[in-house]
């Protein structure tokens, strides 16, 4: 029952609330990480609490203007190899970034499309090598960035410590996470004697990336980029600290102001309802009475719905009715409207 309710809740949430939409691309033509299915599950599990709609794909034909234009962000997750996109798909992705689309790269995403200069500039650099998998200690450089909130001063876990072929700071990156190079072995130098800069970059963000210049005429600007080289092991994707790091970086990128989630005149992104004062709010709230009358099951549904709606309603949403007619005095405004709508939809489905 609980599982069913959870599924219904996420369906109801996506019907009722407009959320930023993110395409997660996990294609590989090189090394394939065993953790990909677990990383997908972990992101999906955060969808409701973080208020992000994910779509997962390995299909490069999704990289065309029409498809990409529906997304507020694109995440490359452990993508490897030069062949993950062909030249026209790569061009469509480049245009998406120029249109204001946001980008997040995770772990091996620096190990694909290395021949595309705009991609390398957008993500910040190219992967070079990593020492063997072993415990290492990572150190935040900027604890105010959303990707660093919750990361301890010394964060130790088993990970591949990436080294790169260039310093991402050369293309505008602000490095938010480094590594204590005395905390693991094999840290000296680089296999190709590249200069990746100091302190050793591990995660960073870029605004107005060179790779997305110039912005398309009519776009509010180019999007944001966030990259973390962490995320090799499945168990890392079970770690709430790591998930907070990834989701914080993603949500920072989505708040660029250059996509439809936050800007009605943007060229790309999930289309927002023009006015959330829709018939859904009122018709659903009357249904909620019916579902509450059904007893125990529906009581727990509306309780869960209330908790969920609190988190999904965070962020810059369009205006909501101040009072949707729900009688529950503990819920007001936006939260009440959403909870009522969710409860009502579930009531209808049950
Ligand atoms: C830390 O990150 C914030 C963004 O969250 C940024 O405004 C600030 O300039 C950064 N500080 C440093 C020292 O880079
Ligand atoms: C939204 O886009 C318009 C048009 O491109 C731009 O002028 C405006 O500054 C943007 N608003 C925000 C909040 O970024
Ligand atoms: C909200 O909905 C009510 C009832 O349908 C309508 O009378 C009112 O004009 C709407 N408000 C706005 C701002 O659209």
Automatic annotation (TrEMBL):
ThuA-like domain ranges (all copies): 21-253
What are the coiled-coil residue ranges? none
| Low complexity bias: start-end ranges | 275-293
Specify where the region named Disordered lies, as residue ranges: 270-330
- List where Polar residues composition bias occurs: 294-323
**Alphabetical list of Pfam families matching this protein:** ThuA
Question: SUPFAM superfamilies recorded for this chain?
Answer: Class I glutamine amidotransferase-like
Keyword annotations: Signal
Domain of life of the organism encoding this protein = Eukaryota
Q: Which PANTHER family match?
A: GALACTOSE-BINDING DOMAIN-LIKE SUPERFAMILY PROTEIN (PTHR40469:SF2), SECRETED GLYCOSYL HYDROLASE (PTHR40469)
What is the name listed in the Swiss-Prot or TrEMBL entry for this protein?
A: ThuA-like domain-containing protein
């Amino acid at each position: 029952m609980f599982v069913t309710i959870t599924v219904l809740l996420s369906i109801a949430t996506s019907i009722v609330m407009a959320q930023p939409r993110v395409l997660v691309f996990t294609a590989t033509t090189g090394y394939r990480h065993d953790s990909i299915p677990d990383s997908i599950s972990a992101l999906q599990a955060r969808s409701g609490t973080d208020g992000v709609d994910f779509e997962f794909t390995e299909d490069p034909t999704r990289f065309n203007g029409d498809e990409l234009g529906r997304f507020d962000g694109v995440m490359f997750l452990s993508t490897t190899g030069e062949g993950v996109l062909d030249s026209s798909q790569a061009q469509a992705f480049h245009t998406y970034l120029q249109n204001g689309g946001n980008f997040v790269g995770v772990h091996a995403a620096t190990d694909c499309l290395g021949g595309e200069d705009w991609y390398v500039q957008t993500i910040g650099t190219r992967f070079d090598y990593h020492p063997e998998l072993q415990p290492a200690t990572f150190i935040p450089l900027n604890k105010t960035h959303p990707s660093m909130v919750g990361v301890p001063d010394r964060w130790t876990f088993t990970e591949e410590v990436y080294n790169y072929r260039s310093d991402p700071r050369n293309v505008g990156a602000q490095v938010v996470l480094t590594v204590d190079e005395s905390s693991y072995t094999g840290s000296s130098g680089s296999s190709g004697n590249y200069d990746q800069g100091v302190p050793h970059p591990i995660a960073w963000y870029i605004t107005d990336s060179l790779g997305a210049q110039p912005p398309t005429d009519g776009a509010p600007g180019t999007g944001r980029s966030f990259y973390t080289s962490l995320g090799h092991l499945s168990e890392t994707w079970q770690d709430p600290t790591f998930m907070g790091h990834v989701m914080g970086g993603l949500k920072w990128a989505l708040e660029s102001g250059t996509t439809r989630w936050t800007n009605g005149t943007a060229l790309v992104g999930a289309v927002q309802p023009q006015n959330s004062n829709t018939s859904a709010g009122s018709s659903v709230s009357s249904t909620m009475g019916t579902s509450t009358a059904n007893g125990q099951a529906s009581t727990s549904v509306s309780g869960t719905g209330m908790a969920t709606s609190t988190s999904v309603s965070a962020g810059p949403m369009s205006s909501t009715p101040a009072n949707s007619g729900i009688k529950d005095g503990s819920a007001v405004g936006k939260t009440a409207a959403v909870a009522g709508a969710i409860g009502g939809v579930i009531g209808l489905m049950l």
